[in-house]
Design brief:
single chain; about 260 residues; alpha/beta; Aminopeptidase; seven-stranded mixed beta sheet; 7 helices; about 30% helix; globular
Length: about 260
């Protein structure tokens, strides 16, 4: 199994598509040695978001690294942010723009195989769990959890805000949900924030967020400096994590409460 799904009992699914840190042994030889340290992973988010299990949320997380295949990119590999630097369905570069592969990048047939082996099962599970939650509760909320280094010139200028809320410019979630999440984020002035800024939501948010069908999706891209060391060995910083976790919990709870309010249950 290339992913782990824990089913909950509230209408909330937390997806953590970039937390995988493994590269299959049969693929490792194609990468430059540096790639095996998977520096661009969304490190430790399962630990940071451990509280969602107490809330009764479902949690979906992969085993393998985004260097194998990016679960938050469309299956046709269309760019998510036209005009900006983008990573592909099967990434070919590190976040600093340097090549991931020692030789040629995966051919189309290899990409198709990875999509069938790793991408499709994750999305089948995601879609099925959202359908289960919607059937049981009448609606569902998807929270897509991400983290990233605060400064990556190849991807964005300057320093990224700490909390980047994305709802595909308002298309993936009802306005009341976006407003509730933003208000919760604003309660702690230590953390800068943005709504539908550089990170508006990737494929998961854009594809599954369908408010007209009673399924709402929110992406949170947060800076890693808020809870961990952004340089090797990428260790979890307990004190920082304890400070930001109440903010995260408040944001997730606000999204869930706002979603429930829309449907009166």
């Amino acid at each position: 199994m290339s992913f782990q799904l824990t089913r909950g009992n509230v209408p909330l699914l937390v997806s953590i598509p970039h937390m995988g840190t493994e590269i299959p042994k049969d693929l490792q030889g194609g990468y430059v040695p540096r790639a095996l340290a998977v520096e661009d992973a969304d490190w430790h988010l399962d630990r940071l978001y451990a509280f969602v299990r107490d809330l009764g949320a479902s949690v979906l997380q992969p085993q393998y690294a985004r260097y194998v295949i990016d679960l938050n990119r469309p299956p046709d590999n269309a760019p998510m942010y036209p005009g900006a630097s983008n990573t592909e369905l099967c990434p070919t570069r590190f976040f600093d723009g340097e090549p991931l592969y020692a030789g040629a990048a995966p051919a189309q047939a290899q990409q198709d195989e990875r999509r069938a082996t790793y991408w499709q099962p994750y999305h089948d599970a995601l879609a099925a769990e959202l359908a289960r939650l919607k059937q049981e509760h009448g609606y569902a909320l998807l929270w897509d959890a991400h983290s990233i280094r605060s400064e990556i010139p190849w991807l964005f200028e300057g320093v990224l805000p700490d909390l980047n809320i994305g709802t595909n410019a308002g298309a993936s979630a009802a306005p009341a949900i976006t407003e509730a999440v933003a208000a919760a984020a604003a309660q702690d002035p230590r953390y800068t924030r943005a709504v539908n800024g550089r990170f508006k939501g990737g494929y998961i948010t854009r594809h599954y967020g369908r408010p007209q069908e009673h399924v709402h999706a929110v992406q949170l891209e947060m800076t890693q400096k808020s809870y961990m060391r952004e340089a090797p060995p990428y260790d979890y910083r307990e004190e920082r994590a304890r400070e930001v976790q109440p903010v995260l919990r408040s944001m997730v709870e606000a999204a869930l409460q706002a979603t429930r309010a829309l449907y009166g249950r």
